[in-house]
Amino acid sequence: MVAPPMNAVTAMNAVTAMTPMTPMTPDPAMPSPRPARPARPGWLPEVDAARCTGCGWCVAACDLHLLSLEVVQWRKISTLHDADRCTGCSDCAVKCPFHVITMRKGGGRLTPATATHSCT
Predict the structure, then answer these.
(1) Which residues form a coiled coil (predicted)?
(2) Counting beta carbons within 10 angstroms of the beta carbon of residue 54, is it exposed (0 to 12), middle (13 to 18) or buried (19 or more)?
(3) For 25-36, what is each residue's pLDDT tens digit?
(4) What tens digit of pLDDT does each residue of 76-107 get?
């Protein structure tokens, strides 16, 4: 004998009925997925805009959402929007797969104006 066909809801109900759901609790012995880096006031990220590929890894790494990608001359470039709120934690520099971002004491820049673009 062949079982009648199931739709997605019926199948999900059958699966959840077989396995009881237990709430997941964090294990206190396990470290957090990413340890917080200490704040370093006065240090700001500086990007080499000519080498920035616009991949967005630095944007995703910034917990304060201070970085974004800006289109300049048909290229995406990382831009720092509020330097006063930047903690200097260097998460963006660590995450950059191309080592384009460096941390500088006393004020950095993530502005596309520092880039030299050539149209070829």
Answers:
(1) none
(2) middle
(3) 656 665 555 666
(4) 999 888 889 999 999 999 999 999 999 998 75
* Three-state secondary structure call for residue 113: helix
Structural domain harbouring 60 = 43-113
pLDDT tens digits, one per residue of 52-65: 999 999 999 999 99
pTM for this structure? Answer: 0.59
Burial 64-97 (b: 16+ CB within 10 A, else e): eebbbbbebeebbbbbbeeeeebbbbbbbbebbe
Distances (CA, A) of 88 to 26, 61, 93, 98: 29, 13, 10, 19
User: Rounded to an integer, what distance in angstroms lies between the CA atom of residue 72 and that of residue 19?
Assistant: 53
Total domain count for the chain? 1
Is 2 inside a domain boundary? no
